[in-house]
Design goal:
Chain A has about 180 residues and is an alpha/beta fold. Chain A is built from 7 helices and 6 strands; from the N terminus they run αβαβαβαβαββαα. Chain B is about 0% helix and about 45% strand. Classes of the chains: A alpha/beta (about 180), B mainly beta (about 400). At the A-B interface, helix 3 and helix 5 of A face loops of B.
């Protein structure tokens, strides 16, 4: 039932194969978030607006919110959305929850084990571990954080605003 | 679903493993460890590792452990969330009770299991019972906390979704979970019927428990106040095991429709002062805070900020030894996880300056303070150093 019982080399092989695929093929299957994964996501979306939505399978408010992100994705199929499932939970269960929420085709990551302080800081140094959490990352690298369930109207306004896209500058990790 | 309790003879000592690859059930892979001393100076540990709960004991203050007993194995269904910890309580007669949460379905509803030992000093070993459900209710129970009071009565409290499920059946939405409790007068063999104390509590934060001078429970928990404010409340008991109205500990105004995964700590000193420590990101204050109450929790002192806010202090743990109160917490400086302490010899009026009592460069469990005799210790599990019982000296 869980990838946790797989031999570690098989896991490593899967990650290597997944990393070798072009980004268009990365959507639709949840991958394990390894040490460098999030930095690579940020590099891939450098100078582009990006929404990172952090959620957890055991987090009730997160599960209630998820279908609203599915709706938003339907209305804005071109937005850059990356999902991170941050509970210690099986990857297949993550995929099932995303399919159910209409997010089956969105780029999705899941943590291989409960995040410690080091792993959390790699995603967001100001994150104390609460969920859900949404990072609205502008093209200039500045980050607006939405804590708890997001007001989708706020997200929609952000997508439409100049905050999301304009004036690209070379700043990737401005928190 | 779970294995019968079994005994492995191999002793262990400070096992290590690689991050994220640690799937064994031994103490070396433990992510959450809970200590308890028995009346014969043995240190018992309950831990979660590799999707299982195990118990062992040490006769040399935590240097080595023996008679490792696997209590239950659940794989991915084990609740190994950031704020979950197995519970272990031992009374003066050597009765032991273990409790922990396990997910039971694809909706991540959970169940609290308990396992008991009629005598941890028995010649043939403690013989922990096959785990059974603490509650007969079928909804969802998580985050158990339990302890014996000084009369030997066992009190268990947990977060319970039965009233949320009932509301949903009636077409209504009820946020969070309920705070539930039950007493046992036979060391966990049987429990009096469950009682729901309070609806609208945060469903994802551990619950803190202590006893007052009348041996009544004192519970501090993250409540949900109107407007999604997930601030802390205290629940106390009056005559005949009846609850008194809950009081708010502080107006932090942390408005969040979400899971903080960060519960509080509570302790009561011999003079009756109630001490609370908690984490918040409210509009009124952000960080780790401490407050005390000398009037039966009607009013708490102004929250006092704890630790270095730049290093995200959190995961508080309070311990009383007579009128001395200890507070330990966790910080992260970007390279190291630190455990710090402050203590007060006058029931929280004046505090020592903060001091680092533990540090590590990889993953670490939250701090737990424990007393043996009149000596306070930090009980701490780290990936690099393994299990440590660190003696706390007052300068």
């Amino acid at each position: 039932m869980t990838s946790r019982s797989h031999p570690i080399w098989l896991l490593a092989l899967c990650i290597l194969l997944a990393a070798a695929l072009p980004s268009s093929a990365q959507a639709g299957s949840t991958r394990l978030l390894e040490t460098e994964s999030f930095a690579q996501v940020r590099i891939r979306y450098a100078h582009k607006p990006l929404i990172v939505h952090i959620w957890g399978l055991t987090c009730g408010p997160c599960l209630e919110e998820l279908p609203r992100w599915g709706e938003l994705e339907k209305q804005h199929p071109d937005m850059n959305l990356v999902l991170i499932q941050a509970d210690d939970a099986p990857v297949d269960a993550v995929g099932a929850a995303l399919d159910h929420a209409g997010l089956g085709r969105v780029e999705s990551w899941s943590v291989p084990s409960e995040l410690d302080e080091f792993a959390r800081a790699r995603i967001d140094p100001s994150w104390s571990g609460e969920m859900p959490r949404t990072l609205l990352i502008s093209a200039d690298g500045s980050v607006t954080t939405v804590r708890g369930v997001a007001d989708i109207a706020v997200i929609t306004r952000w997508l439409a605003s100049s905050d999301a896209g304009a004036k690209p500058v070379l700043r990737l990790h401005n928190h | 679903m779970f294995a019968r309790a079994q005994t492995e003879p191999a002793p262990m000592h400070h096992q290590q493993a690689e991050p994220n690859s640690c799937k064994e059930t031994g103490l070396g892979c433990a992510t959450a460890v809970t200590p308890a001393f028995d009346a014969h100076n043995n240190l018992w540990l309950a831990w979660v590792a590799g999707g299982a709960v195990s118990v062992a004991h040490s006769t040399d203050l935590g240097h080595t452990f023996k008679d490792v007993t696997l209590i239950g194995s659940y794989g991915a269904l084990m609740d190994s969330g950031a704020d979950a910890k197995p519970q272990l309580a031992i009374d003066a007669q050597g009765h032991a009770v273990l409790a922990y949460g396990v997910f039971k379905d694809k909706a991540y509803n959970a169940q609290v299991f308990i396992s008991t030992s009629a005598s941890i000093w028995a010649k043939d070993g403690p013989a922990f019972t096959v785990p059974r459900s603490l509650s007969e209710d079928s909804a969802s129970q998580r985050f158990p906390t339990l302890a014996f009071n000084s009369n030997g009565r066992l009190f268990a409290t947990w977060l319970d979704k039965r009233t949320v499920a009932l509301a949903r059946q009636n077409g209504q939405t009820q946020t969070g979970a309920a705070l539930a409790y039950a007493w046992s007068d036979d060391a966990g063999k049987t429990f009096a019927p469950d009682t729901i104390a309070q609806d609208n509590t945060c469903e994802c934060c551990r619950v803190a428990l202590a006893f007052d001078s009348k041996r009544r429970p004192v519970i501090v928990y993250r409540s949900i106040f109107p407007g999604h404010e997930r601030d802390h409340a205290i629940l106390r008991f009056g005559e005949a095991d009846r609850t008194l109205p809950a009081q708010r500990v502080a107006e932090d105004h942390w408005v969040i429709d979400g899971c903080p995964h960060h519960g509080p700590s509570v302790a009561v000193t011999a003079d009756g002062t109630v001490h609370a420590a908690w984490f918040t990101e409210g509009t009124a204050r952000q960080g780790l805070f401490y407050a005390r109450s000398t009037d039966h929790s009607q009013q708490f002192s102004a929250p006092k900020a704890i630790g270095n806010i730049a290093q995200r202090p959190g995961r508080p743990n309070l311990l009383t030894v007579g009128e001395t109160i200890w507070l330990a917490w966790k910080e992260f400086d970007g390279k190291r996880i630190l455990i710090k302490e402050q203590h007060s010899m006058d029931a929280g009026l004046h505090w020592s300056i903060e001091r680092i009592i533990g540090e590590t460069q990889h993953a670490a469990d939250h701090p737990v303070l424990i007393v043996h005799g009149r000596q306070a210790y930090l009980s701490w599990m780290t990936h690099d150093e393994g299990y440590q019982l660190i003696k706390l000296q007052t300068p």
